[in-house]
Specification:
By secondary structure, this protein is an alpha/beta fold. 37% of the residues lie in helices and 22% in strands. It has three domains: 109 residues, Rossmann fold (3-Layer(aba) Sandwich); 65 residues, 2-Layer Sandwich (Dna Ligase, domain 1); 160 residues, ATP-grasp fold, B domain (D-amino Acid Aminotransferase, Chain A, domain 1, 2-Layer Sandwich), CATH 3.30.470. It contains 18 helices and 16 strands. The N terminus and C terminus are likely disordered.
Amino acid sequence: MTEGTVEVGTSGAIIVGGHVNGLGLVRALAARNVATAVITTKPYDVAHRSRWISSHDTALEIEEQPERLAEVLERRAPDWSGWAVLPANDGALAALAQHQEQLSSRYRVIAPPREVARYFLDKEVMLDVARAVGVDMPYCYGAATTATAAVSDVRFPVVVKPNVGYRFLSRFGCKLFVARDRLELSHSIARLAEAGLSGQVFDLIPGPDSQIYAYCTYIDKTGEPRGGLTVRKLRQSPPLFGVARVAEIVEDNPMLREATIAMVRRIGFHGMAAAEFKLDPRDGRLCFLEINGRSIIYNSLLRRAGLDLGGLAWSDQVCGQPESARANGWAGVWIHLHADVLYALVHRRSERLGFADFLAPYRRPKVYAVWSAADPLPFVAQWSRTAREGATALRNRTLRDLFADRTRPTHFGS
């Protein structure tokens, strides 16, 4: 990550993105007595409802209009000048990378410069890095074009993955397209082209969400990891192709750790990193899916288990006193209650999740994504919004569509 030119005496932090990722950063920094502000980027953000927030503002649709974020930060400079700025989603990461030079005279931008950020934002160059360090990946049939759709040896089902995921998600409300036959593949490629986006066609790795793992670490300015943990997803929202809604800490896999560190070192990145892999049951390989270079959704899980990514970034890049984290052996689970309950209801038939299976994580030691007795308003705001729009949707007989929108992932990663 690149520092700005402001003085070290930063008095607070601005979190760009107010969903679960941003809330995790707010609470982590509040625990260190750091003043925080939030810039919301989605209508359903909740972090600005936290009791720890000193102020907030809004910059919507920054995926397509990144200048909006710079405009808000320029306008709020009299209040926030000298503060650190941290991205909590890929749209924020891209906007900060694009305007970093402009903003660095007033703020300490804790985000990678454009030449580094592109490796996290563009899947094509991200996968080039993975190949260069020898990481296993799902088989790629080629670019998402009509020529690839016509290739005779494509084994269905396949996935059409966009190269720029956050723009795809903003347009379509999902992370990728799944094609079960050639007609669906052609249709998916056409939709991608109509949106002016590019992508690639990959083999679909079978198996449940519980076969997805992420290695999470903090890399300091010298390129050294300051601790790390491996997270296993148990359930996703939506199932199979979403972000975590229930997850746990598992024993580290040396291959995942070494692959993650090799990739971030190769691109010259330092900061919060999380690389995601899925176990292929057909051959036992752990295949690389993606890597993120900003706050992730299960911040509170990592903190509870001894890896405080937000705190490590603050101590390293603001205070100039890098810390090391150590796993504490906590054996509980992380639950995003809102997403878990709603997706279990909406996808009860396709997910085939029995009542006992649904309750199993709740019987273990746990930490919640949003709920906190010490900071309840984000939880109240999240459920109140769903209740209000649920009542409207019931009147319009569109409840399933509502839940699909209100609980959809916002590409916060992992």
